[in-house]
Structure formats: C-alpha cells, structure tokens
Amino acid sequence: MVGSTPSWITVRGETVAQGRFIDNQDVSDHEPVVVLGSVTASELFSREDPVGQTVDVGGLPLTVVGVLNSVGSSTTSSTISDPDDTAVVPLTTAAEQIFGGTSRNTLSSIIVQARSSDDLTAAYQEADHELLELHGITTATDADFTITTSASLISTATSVDRTLTILLGGVAGISLLVGGIG
Known about the structure:
- With 182 residues, the protein is an alpha/beta fold.
- The chain contains six helices and eight strands.
- The chain has helices at residues 8-12, 24-28, 38-44, 91-98, 120-134, 150-181, and strands spanning 2-4, 16-19, 33-36, 54-57, 60-68, 74-75, 80-81, 87-90.
C-alpha cells in the first residue's frame, strides 16, 4: 500500500490500463479510493472488472478507480519485488485513515525525479538541502534521513552479486576438494 500524490505515476513511469489514477481532488478531499497494480487486481478480482468495486483495507472500504499496466517483476540477488503487486491511495487518505490518524506527520519515502541525467547531482543536492531545512538540521552529518540514488542501488546490487559469486565459488571449491579426498 502506497500513499501518494498524482505525480507518483509520472515519476514512476507507469500508466493506467483501466479507469484513472488518483487526482488532486482525491488528495484534497481525502477520498477513499485506490488504484491497484495489475497483479493485485487479478488476485482480488480474477474475472471481474475491478473498477468501481470496493476493497476493504483495515476496515476502510476503498473504491477501485483504476488499474495500472503491468511493468513486470524486479529481481536482484538481494530483493525480490513485484511492482505490479501494489495499491496506491491518496496521500491524505493513507495518512489519516490507514497509517495512523490525523497526527501522523512522517513519511517513509519520497520519490524524486530529475529533469535529465545531467541534473542528477543538482537534484540530489536540492533534495538534501530541502530536507535538512525542513528537519531543522544545520549539519549534514546530523541528518535523520538518507537519500538513495538509482546509481547507488545498482552499485550495491552489483557488490552483493560479486560477493555471492565469490562465496559460492569458495563453497564449490571446498566441496570438490572434500569430494576428491573422500
């Protein structure tokens, strides 16, 4: 379950297969609506059109207003995730009715998109500066948040893959050695 704004679909590069995505009116009116990922929609409504149907999340009935196009699963050595197995609700609905009530004032993640690859460094610095300012932090080393870029995620995944390859090679070598001695 993701609480978001209408810009989520653009930043994520996704499209709607059926119905519509959440809009600014849904956010400002705290509407109990949801847009389902294709896998979630097919699991909940295998043979029915999900748009217009109701799903219950923690006792809150949400009206399905759209279904996202399938983007396929994402698999790396360290994580297995399926972006098609999701549900997106207006940020205000999520914060106030699903994740903690009207006093909730925290976010678990923010997705930011740079205009182009040339602007990545500037976008990173701008996001860092804005978050430091919003959190009232004057020294970057005291930050209570982390910023992760796509490049750092790819670097981490590559490093994990290399480590696992070396580890498995070592285990295979020991197995061959023990098998040859026995």
